[in-house]
Amino acid sequence: MSFLAITRATLAKDIRLEWRSKDAINAMLFFSLLVVVIFSFAFDPTAEESRRIAGGLVWVAFLFAAIVALNQTWARELRNQVLDAYRVSPAPATPLFIAKAFGNFIFVAVLEALMTPLFVAFYKLRPLGPSWQLIPIAVLGTWALVVNGTFFAAMSLRTRAREIMLPLLLFPLSIPALLGMVNSTAAVLTGETSPTFWIALLVAYDVVFTTACLLMFEAVLEAE
Amino acid sequence: MKRGFTILAIVTAVLLSFALYAALVIAPTEQTMGNVQRIFYYHVPSAWVAFELFLINFIASVFYLVRRSAKADILALVTAEVGVVFCTVVLITGPIWARPVWGIWWTWDLRLTLTLVLWLIYVSYLVLRRFSTSSQTPLLAAVLAVFGALDVPLVYFSIWFFRTQHPAPVIGGGGSLDPRMGWVLLYNWIAFMCLAWLVCWTRYRLEVAQRAVHEVEAMQSLMEGTR
């Protein structure tokens, strides 16, 4: 099978699984809904304040919710030794990683699309900057979370307390990406500064870590 | 080998005790900050030593990925552990100094943040090593070390921009150092490097011994299994 065919097959399988069970997406949606409600209760911000803090709140909520999807990415493959079967098959590792990362990207993107209207309503958000810029920020930021998240989820498969390990590995490394997402979102919402630097930072982060993940995934997959 | 270890231990003890004297007595008292400034002779050398150890960890990790040498893996483990200890010293002594001088315990300044993020990355590195159930722990750890190293420039640029946008309410930086102070600082740095070397060496020997014990135990249980 060609590279693309493997990617497509794995991605289609993951989406079909998720479509039928809706395990991850439901958990993620409910979780981020809770975060929105609790933060809204805790701070009860005015429109002015929420413009400044919303960037942080939104991304923290998405980050925590994304952990749910990321954790089950590979755990799902452990049942019935699917991952072992993949390992002994002649298929290369890279398309598997790309399919998994894209799958997670789609799940988190769906979550974001559904949750953003709620955020806007709860926090009375009205961006003062050009709001179309939020779209590239969301795409780059989500990919930044998901690419490393998929990689470290594969890594934490071989640890005790797997579900706890993933955030412990992922969060420290994600600090620059998180700074980029939060600050660029805040820049667009307040309209005071330009988000260009932060978007460039996100692009750099995405390029660097996507390359690193692709180069090193095979070694991590083969590690038993 | 053993003799070298003893010599290093004695040299370190002598250097460190004189370093204490140098930092507390020989170094002149700073004019504006007073005696609290003397923590500088522990803070700065610890920071340098921590960064050196993290650098060695990165080099050893890359070497491990290329050559799969067990020695490089042990070196990476040891330098990460000792580096985290020195980095913790930096993060504790920093606020103790900052509180009376800056009036605040902490600020999101470039160097402070970078040190904290490095500390976080290396703690997660140690957690991974501790929690890993794989026989390939060295490989996973080495991969994480490389990811951590890739992260550092990105953190640097993000904080650098962040800081230029929002200058923190801090003074300090700039200004020249009294030559006697510089001398004491350099001396303390050498003493701390010897200490780090000594601790790493001890830990290295311990790890080698531990792995040998594990191997023997595994062999024994295998033999019993076949009997």
Can you put this structure into words, describing what you see?
The complex is a heterodimer of chains A (224) and B (227). With 224 residues, chain A is an all-alpha fold. Chain A has one domain. Helix content of chain A is 84%, strand content 0%. Chain A has 8 helices and no strands. The model of chain A has no long low-confidence stretch (mean pLDDT 88). Chain B has one domain (2-168, 178-207): Four Helix Bundle (Hemerythrin (Met), subunit A). The relative contact order of chain B is 0.15. By secondary structure, chain B is mainly α. Chain B contains 6 helices and no strands. The two termini of chain B are 40 Å apart. Chain B is globular and about 75 Å long. Helices cover 81% and strands 0% of the residues of chain B. Classes of the chains: A mainly alpha (224), B mainly alpha (227). At the A-B interface, α6, α7 and α8 of A face α4 and α5 of B.
